[in-house]
Every structure is written in structure tokens, then in C-alpha cells.
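Minutes, project check-in
Item: structure for the 714-residue chain
Input as provided by the requester:
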Amino acid sequence: MLGLLLVSGALAAEEAVARPAWAVREYRGAPGLWRDGEPVTPMIFWQWKPERYEVEHFSAAGINLFSFFGSFQHYDHPYWKPDGRVEPEFQDAEIRKLLSYNPRAYVLPRLFATAPEWWIKANPGEQCRYSGGQTDKPRESFASRKCREECGQAYRRAVRHLLQADYGRRLMGIHVTNGPWGENFHWDAYFSKANPPAASDVSESMRQRFVAYLRGKYGNDVARLRAAWKDPALTFEAVQVPRAEQRLRTTAGAWRDPHQSRAVMDYFECHNEVAVEMVDHYCQIVKEESGGTLPTVAFFGYTMDENWPIECDHRGISKLLRLDSVDMLSAPHTYYRRALGGDGEMRQYLASAALHGKLFIDEGDDQTYLEKRKPRPDHRCHVNTVEETQALLYREFGNTVTHGVGLWYMDLNGGWFRDPALVDTVGRMKKWADVSMRHSRKRNAQVAVISAPESEFYLGYRRTPENEISYGLYHDQMGEFYRTGAPFDWYLIDDLEAVRDKGYKVFVFLDCFYLTAGQLKAVESLRSKNRTLVWFYAPGYASQEDLSLARMEALTGFALEPVEEGMLRGEVCATGAMVGIAKRQKSLFVVRPGAGVRELARGTDNLKEKTVLALKQNPKWTSVFSSTPGLTADQLRDLYREAGVHVYTDCGDVLSANESWLMLHTKTAGRKSISLPNRSRKITEITAEKIVAEDASAFSIDLPSYCTAVFLLE
């Protein structure tokens, strides 16, 4: 109580002092966090609620930015009361508790926009509805105008309350959260394993929003709508949201042919736009109430490595990146390659986010060895010792510092950091994160990976032969890129024209099965300057109007043969090694023999006489086509070198780098030889705080397996 009285008195004394103005804008080559015109190291600590041990120890270690609150706390303690009051008592108490432990801390609270249970029960007509019939966990429709208006008013009053509270000047932003776990997914994510899929949202609210979307898309011209949907009697007023059975239906092998299925793809477009509109609505409220002095954070734009139905994902990320209301994005890194030796990929199109001035904050929720000491440990804990935990923590740090992004360490299950050695490790990383703010944060990759998230609108659902390729690309194939020894930048297809002339020597079109006419033109413009273009599965096969093999052939320069079904595996011609994944995929395309075509891998089973990986050297560019997610790190490294890309190392370990930093996370033990693109005055390995070379453009270091080394290149 005495601590709370003291901090209340201290805060009251500061009331006359203006609240700091926080912002996100460019700093040393990447988006940065600023307070009152000064850059701030974007390193944060997150808990469900502030605990004395963590706040005091991490504050002593140099961390003064804190975040907390989760979805279950919001449901248990809604700030919007049934009698109309808006009183965030729970948030007040916890923020004040934080400041009693560290009066100089700044806080980034999660403020949920999710409608409280009483409102959902009182407004059954505004609920999200599922074609699959799910009725548990009733939630509001993101398309509900009534919910957006009434919840928006309550949200506005809650934001105003936080700003006007005695702790208001300690706010550094608002984390705007909604949907399952606060991650701004549609509510389908709660039913991600449902079979058939939950297939939201078939509510009247969504139907009305769908009608409005179609009026906009087709210029309010019913003749255009009828032509697109192949229904001569259709009217806008009669439009219905496609149900699960319609969405599940493919009409051309693995594909939804736009000639027959335009309604489904139109709905997917609308469905994703609604999520973006929802996030924008609540972020705008924060901007308006704070006079633009509080940045907003949203979970959004996760790369699609979760193997769940299309309704669950953030496919509208390109539109969201163009919003002025959103300053920062966050996501937990991949759950599939985060064990020791894996890459811990950050789940965001980081290069596109940076291009649009959004600061990304990686959610570092890797479990520490202390989870294993609990009576019932979480099965997802991958480490057993302090040293193994440190390797994961330094990998988080290395990934973020080499991309010029932020990081919050997350104590998800409680007690993960109650070891002085771990506190010391985080403190050391904070020290070096501060150092990083004095150096270039600019990327220097020469490889660009390009994604088109709308492509899966045209494919069947995952976990079926209609679509095993997507998970293979986002998980298995992406894992290979991190082991090539060369960094890469990941962009959305909508940003391709903006980065065409930024010096990339290799462009990889990972999932660009659907291309608009403008996107197709931007891709075609790359076929010059001795660039290498790498294509997977079916580049450009789908458009708004049709599916076209001829368009694929014209784009890639290969003659292609459609195959009804085949295994997503291949045998490398040079080595006999098997690559790819043991899944069957409908509607594959293989390469026909032809002049200048070099066969790199053949298929298996019914495709054993077919070419599934090939290279063709054209006069001004090189084309590489892979039917499967089976292009290995070794093969990619060879392609990079032929294209003139600088390769840092051949060791096959996870590597990330920018102009000032290099991170190596090992899978194997041994001597690692590193070649730098430029000479460095001094090279410091920061986990051991040891200078490993001076005035050098190359160095070697002995490292054990499953460790992380992070190098500052001055």
C-alpha cells in the first residue's frame, strides 16, 4: 500500500508535465521507435500482469518498456459494463502496480475491442455465424455496424480513461486487440481443425457488407456482377455468402476456376477486407483520442505457416500496411522451426512492413528451461538447460537486430525468467540493442522472396490433395532459405514495382499463383539485368478471369505439362538425393524438355520420368522452375553464386545479416568460415563479448552445435 501511495504521489506531481509524444518513423535505415524526438530501443518485456520479481530485475537490467494483458483477462474483467459504464478498473490496478515497482517505466497495454459477453447475448443478430454450424464461443461479427459503433464508443471512452488517468503520461502506445487470443484473426481460428471448416461469416451483417463490397467492385453494375458470377438472374439484393460446401468445391482439379467459382473468391476478398476495416476502426480511435501522440500496435500479417483453413489467416495485409492508423505490427515467430537448430522465422513480410514504415515487434515467447522444472511442463518447451535457453534467447535477439525490428520477451506461462543468469542474459542483450541504435539498421540482402497471399483464394483447402503445396512452401521450403548462407528480404507482390531496382539479383516467387494484370506486368519487367527468377508450383496460373497454362509458360519461359496428380517430391539429378515432401498434390505442372532447359530434379512415383525442377538460361535472365517445395539450401546457394549474390558461408546453419550485424545459429558443431561483403574495422561476437577479428573481410570461429553467435560488424 505504501508503494502505491508513493507512486500515486509521484505521478500526481508530474501531472503538469506534458505527456511524451511517441512515434514510429525511420531511423538509420529502418522504422524506429521515438519519444519526444529521440530514438528509443524497441525492447520490451511482456507478462499477463506485472510481477515484482520480473519488473524490478528487468528494470535493473535496463528494460523500462513493459506490456501486459491477455484475452482471458479481458473476458473476465470487461471494462464496458452492462449498465453502460466504462471503467477499466482491472487495467488501472495492474498499471499502477507496474509503476509501484518502477515509477519510470513506460507501458504498452493490450486494450481489447472484443464485445463483452453481455453485449453478445443481448444482440444475437450481430453474432458471427458459421456455415459449419458451430455455436460455442459466440462472438460478434466483425462486419456488424452496430457492434463497431457501440463497441467503438466504449473503446473510445476506455482509451480516454487511460490517457486521463494518473499514469497517462507513462503510456507508450496502445496494443489494439480483437479476435481469437487478441490476434485479429476471424473467429474461425477457434475452430481451425473443424472438418468441414467453420466457414464464417454467414451472418446478415456480413451478407450486407458483402453486398456493399460487390457494389464497389463491380461499379454497382448488376450486368457485370451477373457476368462474373455466371448467373443471369442475380441481383445485388439477392446475393448470399457462399457456404462451406460451395467454398470446398474445386472446379478444375485443385483449383477454383473463376469462370465457375467467382462468388467464392469475391467473398474471400471481402472477408479479409472486413478484418482490415475492423483494425483500422479501433486504431483510428486511439489516434483521435491521443492527438496522434500514441502509436498503435496490432497483431496482423502473419505469414501463413499455420496449416488451417483460409478464413483464419490475415490475407488483407497489403491493405493494412497502407493504413496511417497502424504504426507497429507484431506476431509470435513460427511454431514449427523454433527448436534448437531451427530458424525461428519471424512471421511477417518484414521487408514490405519496413517499406511502409511499420515497426515490427517479434513476440519472443520461446519457453525457457524453467518450464521443464514445473510439475506439469508445457510439451512445447524445447530446452533443458540455461545454456540451451540462452541459445534461443540470443537467436531471438539475432533475428531482430539483423532486421532492424523490435522484440518483446514474453513470460507466457509464468516464472520463465526467475533465474539471475537469464535476467543477466536479457540485460546483456538490452545493452547490445542500445549499441545497435548507434549503427546502421539497413538491410543489405540481394535476394527477394515475393508472396501473393490471395493466391490460396483459388486453390482448395489445406490438408487435402487440393492443397498440400501451400504448407510445404511456407514451412519446408522457407526453412531452406535460412540455410543458404545469404540473407533475403520478404515482400508482398503489391510492393514488387517499388523494389524492382533496389539491387536484388535473385527474385523468388514463392506462392504467386494468382497475379493481377498489373502484378504480372511488374513481374515481367524483372526479366533483364541478368537477374535470376525462381518460380514455385503455378506462377501466374490464376487471374480474376481465368486459369491459364499459356500465361504461366509466357511468364516463366518454360513449356509446361499439366499432370492430374503427383507426389510433391523429387530426386536431384546430380546427387540422387530425395527432396520435397511426402504429400500428394492435384494439378501439378512439370517441365517439358526443350532447348536450353537443364533438368535439375525428376519426380517420383508416377512422375519419375518427369522434370520437376529445371533451369533455363535466357539471353538477359535465368529462369528456375520447381513443381515442388523441394529446392534445397545447397541448390539455392549455387543459384545465388551464379547470379552474383554474396554468400557469407557454406556451413548450412541458420544465418541472418544486415549492414551492421550477423547472426549464426548452428545445427552442427565445427569451424565456421564467414566471408563478409565489406571489410570491417572490428568484429565482436557479443554473446561472449569477444573481438574475433579486426580490419577483416573474413573470419573463422569454432562453435558447438545448437548455439547462437551474434556479431557486431563495425
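Outcome recorded: The CA atoms of residues 63 and 625 lie 47 Å apart.
No further action items on this chain.
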